[in-house]
Design brief:
homodimer; alpha+beta; Uridine Diphospho-n-acetylenolpyruvylglucosamine Reductase, domain 2; Uridine Diphospho-n-acetylenolpyruvylglucosamine Reductase, domain 3; Alpha-Beta Plaits; 5 domains; seven-stranded antiparallel sheet; five-stranded antiparallel sheet; 19 helices; about 35% helix; FAD-bd_oxidored_4_C (chains A, B)
Chain lengths: ~550, ~550
């Protein structure tokens, strides 16, 4: 069964290797775990539901608790402490677009707030209920989880929006296809959630981001049903898909998703290359992607992440031999790991391997082969379980991510890391910070930073530590040419930073779309943008006629 | 100097080869050219300008005539007959974003309609003035034509929005880069026009459509300046770039465009392959693109287009030898030509060639080498001059284009061709119709159909012939899962068909954006959508509060 207060299935887990604990002691000091609340204590504290009865809605306390929080660090602390603050008043489990339509109409007539819910894996507060005078209904799409249609000639598959990653891939694999969308949250996140939050998968170099994979579908909006037909491409005006991508439930509920699929590849390998320095690793990665080498995945860890990964790898003898070999080849202190995926026909993989080997040689990279890459691939979706293991030892882990143009990567990365590393200096605490680049484009890449620190003496202190670091680093990101999110979306946590990125008129455009689809403003309020009210004082020109947004 | 009543430069032109004329006689009959009006007669008929004086605006009659029409067939007939109907009241030639801002403010204060003008190459009526009580200003962006900035690390270039194709490529080539965006209109069209109309170039397989190339920039809107910052990718809400892409001047004037550029490739070749049949050629193309073979260009002509191209090729002896060779290899009656471009490093080109040769062999394709491909590359931007040559012989040529999913390609193509071929049957005229597929995606491809017919006895009759075919075929396209445009945009000519494609709510979303950016509705009215007024009767749910779009 799924954990009510953490990541994944109760039967799955991860242990820190003994060397790993020692490594953290050395980096941030000895820690002491905070006590977890019990499910029973939380259930006892759920307030009565304010929802009128409806056959598709349950107001069962456990369902409400299990849908009250996502997977952000504040969510984690709330679930562990039992201090949830807010709960949905009920949870619906629609089984069809018609069910969703009926539920929406029910809510619109009664002024009930609707929060669409995919896998509940948001790390930015997308699905959190809030202080509201109106009742809140969470709409869990989990029962709409089937492959509805597969057009093998056009390579288009239609899924229920609540289909989670493993189930989606299993249904496709049975027919010889893959979507190839593998975010870290793959085990639990859903195709509808991927679209609504503009997600990106680990092999986006081959398969594209969800923007490239989402071909159309069906959205139940407060104004009626929006069908987005499929075209391979079109120049006919602004693209409606791009309005729904990243709409985060503000414009309606995605019920059916059409995605572009690919036949399963003949061959796939992941290589680990080690470079003597950060600059060499980063430059090699940039040149690989700018040279359009046909890779499926690319990731570059900085020196601290490389060191941390090797320390936590759990097979110290092998790692010792590897380190000796690398030292002999010129990569010791400050060395950086790159993981390269090649996927495709045998000939494509051979060509890609030939091309990347030629390029990494120019930057003194050492190809260690596929052994470490295979281990990475095996464990690629287990990383979220690491938070559980660290928590038991008294450590808190969170990640921050952004993307920026190549000319700004080092500048932004250094600012983010420096701010986090010094984040708890006032209280004499150390923070262990490391980073990788993991999604690559000709223009730039994503920056994904992990930070580990000791939990405070209380939950409140722990949350305050986190908030200080999160807030100041988010400020640094948006004010230094970084996007507030490359792959996690905006939610409620990033909403205050969005105006810096979109600008005043950009925010007006998004607000206008929200008002258009959801005139009553009942869809997931507070997510994506704080307010959709037309701004009054910000208009450059006075409006003389056709002032369409006067409320 | 640029032709005032046709395509391109007066010193450039094209002649039909003698065999070509005979071929058309045989297919559609002997024709007689209509007489052209003189520039003087048109100048004499321009009404007085209604614009107040402004130092950046000229009301010179020739400037107004030269900006009154694009390159659609109705535009062509208007320019040839001299019956222009409407003219802009003046033309402005801004040299900076500040000039554009000043002009916009001038127009907003005085209720002057603004038509942004790039290269004037629209084939869908984007830049045509219309019957209006308000004066109309055309804003020609042609003086904003410089490379403003080149970031070689992030491979981003900033151009003035009025930079035309050859000038843009020359400025980049001098620095070792290319944008790689080569629409048929390349000689005259501009980077701002490409973005505003969601253009696609012949080598989009390698470089992407303009959607993938447009990274950000500056838009002067009636509500103020919209800056779109560059990010390699972002999951932070709906993408503002995607709102401006395809906005066709309805939301403002693009003044600076940031595009993603690529270093000039080491190697480039175009091969011509001939297949015994349409099905074999089409299937090979689909499998090449679905197999992610690294090509830069792909094009498949159907049997009539293949036959027509060979007849009009102008070197009959060589073609005769080629036909004999192909017959010996099994490709005679019904054979179809494919053009394949490979671009990249030497190793990438070798790998691509190896992969496509292996695949075409499975479909009995005959690779004729690079000779015909070189000829195609040399003449690739001269095709628009062909209309001039045909016109002098009494023939009218136009094209129609769409895109659809693979499972629907043959169905739609056959419907479009059959409708055009029978288009003039009531008056006993024949129409010569042929098609190629020219932009390929895993999901489907574009369909580009050319049709040639004899001009009528009068201009009115000729226009009526065209309109009947255009209208009925556009209906067929949007009602048979085709987009109303894959690469030409909507303009005024396609606007009536857009609601079928976008749906009622999709149209509401686009209208809301237009109202948001342009509350006075002075920006290019009638283009893209017929009306941006909020629909009254189409709302599914009655609006109870926050009804933001009540006028």
């Amino acid at each position: 069964m799924r954990r009510w207060n953490g990541w994944g299935d109760e039967n799955n887990g991860m242990e820190l290797p003994p060397g790993g604990v020692g490594f953290l002691h050395e980096r941030v000091g000895k820690a002491k775990a905070l006590a977890d609340a019990s499910l029973e204590s939380v259930l006892a504290r759920t307030p009565p539901s304010r929802l009128p009865a409806h056959p598709l809605i349950t107001t069962d306390a456990e369902a409400r608790v299990r849908h009250a929080r996502g997977q952000s660090l504040p969510d984690w602390l709330a679930m562990r402490s039992g201090d949830f603050q807010y709960f949905p008043d009920g949870v619906a489990f629609p089984e069809s677009s018609e069910d969703v339509r009926e539920l929406l109409d029910f809510c619109l007539e009664r002024d009930i707030v609707v929060i669409p819910y995919g896998g509940g894996t948001s790390v930015a507060g997308h699905i959190n209920p809030f202080d509201s005078d109106m009742p809140i209904l969470t709409m869990d799409m989990g029962r709409m989880n089937s492959l509805l249609e597969l057009d093998e000639e056009s390579q288009l598959a239609t899924f229920g929006a609540g289909t989670p990653g493993p189930h989606l891939e299993a249904q496709l694999r049975a027919r010889g296809y893959t979507l190839g969308h593998f975010p870290q949250s793959f085990e639990l996140s859903t195709v509808g959630g991927w679209v609504a939050s503009r997600s990106s998968g680990q092999q986006s170099l081959r398969y594209g981001r969800i923007e490239q994979l989402f071909a159309g579908g069906r959205v139940e909006t407060p104004r009626g049903t929006l069908y987005i037909p499929t075209f391979p491409a079109s120049s006919a005006g602004p693209d409606i898909r791009e309005i729904i991508l990243g709409s985060e439930g503000r414009m309606g509920v995605l019920t059916e998703v059409k995605v572009r699929v690919t036949p399963l590849a003949e061959k796939e390998d992941f290589y680990v290359i080690v470079f003597p320095s950060w600059t060499q690793a980063k430059t090699a990665a940039r040149e690989l992607v700018q040279g359009k080498t046909q890779l499926s995945m690319l990731r570059v860890s900085n020196a601290v992440e490389t060191e941390t990964q090797l320390a936590l790898a759990g097979h110290p003898r092998q790692i010792e031999w590897l380190e000796r070999y690398l030292k002999w080849r010129g990569a010791s202190e400050g060395k950086c790991m790159m993981t390269v995926g090649v996927t495709g026909s045998a000939d494509q993989c051979r060509a890609a391997k030939r091309q990347f080997n030629a390029l990494i040689k120019q930057h003194r990279g050492v190809n260690t082969g596929t052994l470490l890459g295979r281990k990475w691939a095996q464990k690629r979706f287990l990383m979220p379980y690491l938070r559980e293991a660290l928590w038991r030892d008294g450590y808190v882990v969170d990640t921050l991510e952004t993307a920026t143009d190549w000319d700004n990567v080092d500048h932004l990365l250094n600012k983010v890391e420096a701010n986090l590393r010094a984040g708890l200096e006032p209280e004499g605490e150390r923070v262990h910070v490391f980073t990788h680049l993991s999604h690559f484009y000709g223009q730039g890449c994503s920056i994904y930073t992990t930070y580990v620190f000791k939990s405070g003496v209380t939950y409140e202190e722990t949350l305050a530590r986190w908030r200080r670091m999160k807030t100041s680093t988010s400020d640094i990101i948006v004010n230094n040419r970084g996007t507030i999110s490359h792959q996690h979306g905006v939610g409620k946590d990033h909403a205050p930073y969005l105006p810096v990125e979109k600008g005043e008129l950009g925010m007006c455009a998004i607000a206008a779309l929200c008002r258009e689809f959801d005139p009553q403003q009942l869809m997931n309020p507070g997510t994506l943008i704080a307010s959709v009210e037309p701004p009054q004082a910000t208009v450059k020109k006075s409006v003389k006629r056709g002032d369409a947004w006067t409320t």
